[in-house]
Design brief:
Helices cover 34% and strands 30% of the residues. It is of the alpha+beta class. It has one domain. It is flat and about 40 Å long.
């Protein structure tokens, strides 16, 4: 079943999106906002676009979903 899905898209769709867990631990030497900003800057330098953000229910962090195809103008 998984092979059928990857074959239908030529295997490219799975590589378009990147999921990143950004830990926002309390009590750290680095404030959470700095950690989050560093992650956003890293994606921006690569011209990635944020397509989703959610709080991770299992940890003190957020999940960022990046579209690695870059920005779409127009």
């Amino acid at each position: 079943m998984a092979e059928e899905r990857s074959g239908a898209f030529g295997g490219l769709e799975a590589e378009r999106y990147q999921v990143e867990l950004v830990p926002l631990a309390t009590g750290s030497d680095v404030p959470s906002i700095v950690t989050l900003q560093e992650s956003v800057n890293k994606g921006a330098r690569q011209s990635w676009k944020i397509v989703g953000v959610a709080q991770d229910p299992m940890s003190q962090g957020v999940i960022i979903v990046w579209d690695k195809s870059g920005f779409i103008y127009g």
